[in-house]
């Protein structure tokens, strides 16, 4: 659809949604909250169901309902996001514990009323000790192991979801984003058909500018 908009076949487009009691123009009658998570059960108002479950805090994502409404690609993205967020709990707690331990050690080693030292100097020492202490290398090692373990667990999760959603044998060639269109035309070396492309010199110039700004930061 975005390619058709880019080519000028359509002037504008918008995504159609199911009728819902959340829609002020075309509402459905409020039939109450449907709290079931059964895979095959029909939900008369899927938008309201997702609003009551998916958008609430401290609730697991109804991935099957997300898949049925938005498709497998969107559901897999939110499955990855939920898995990553949940797996970050242990590193977060461990990092917080190491930070507090380093801060306590720094306060005991350099009290605030240390002779011949200003308060700003002492606080600076506390901050350095809290973020960089004897436990920091071990924390870095744990983070490396956590990254590997999370990657393997996510491979299992995505394989399970792909099998359950019957898309495990599905392969899709991701098309180029329509926002990145070419500025010149050249023949394709395989098919011989003319196709748009972006000049390499302009690409190098923009990449050099981005790299220069990154170095300044």
Automatic annotation (TrEMBL):
The UniProt transmembrane annotation reads: 74-104, 135-154
Q: Does the keyword Translocase apply?
A: no
Q: Where in this chain does the record put each Anoctamin transmembrane domain?
A: 66-216
Matching entries from InterPro entries are given as:
Anoctamin, Anoctamin_TM
Topology with respect to the bilayer: Multi-pass membrane protein
Primary location group: membrane
One GO cellular component, as annotated: membrane
**Pfam families, alphabetized:** Anoctamin
Q: What keywords are annotated for this sequence in UniProt?
A: Membrane, Transmembrane, Transmembrane helix
Please report which protein family the annotation says this sequence is part of. Answer: Belongs to the anoctamin family.
The name under which this protein is listed is Anoctamin
Organism the protein comes from: Nematostella vectensis
């Amino acid at each position: 659809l975005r390619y058709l908009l880019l080519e000028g076949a359509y002037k504008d487009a918008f995504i159609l949604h199911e009728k819902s009691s959340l829609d002020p123009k075309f509402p459905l009658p409020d039939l109450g909250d449907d709290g079931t998570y059964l895979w095959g059960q029909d939900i008369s108002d899927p938008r309201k169901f997702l609003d009551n479950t998916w958008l609430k805090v401290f609730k697991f994502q109804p991935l099957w309902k997300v898949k049925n409404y938005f498709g497998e690609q969107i559901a897999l993205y939110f499955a990855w996001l939920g898995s990553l967020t949940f797996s970050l709990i242990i590193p977060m707690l461990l990092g917080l514990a190491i930070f507090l331990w380093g801060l306590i050690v720094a306060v005991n080693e350099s009290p605030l009323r240390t002779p011949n030292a200003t308060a700003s100097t002492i606080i600076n020492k506390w901050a350095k000790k809290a973020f960089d202490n004897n436990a920091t290398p071990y924390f870095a090692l744990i983070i490396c192991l956590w990254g590997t373990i999370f990657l393997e667990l996510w491979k299992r999760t995505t394989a399970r979801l792909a099998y359950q959603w019957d898309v495990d044998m599905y392969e899709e060639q991701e098309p180029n984003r329509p926002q990145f269109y070419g500025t010149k035309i050249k023949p394709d070396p395989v098919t011989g058909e003319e196709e748009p492309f972006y000049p390499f010199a302009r690409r190098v110039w923009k990449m050099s500018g981005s790299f220069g700004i990154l170095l300044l930061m």
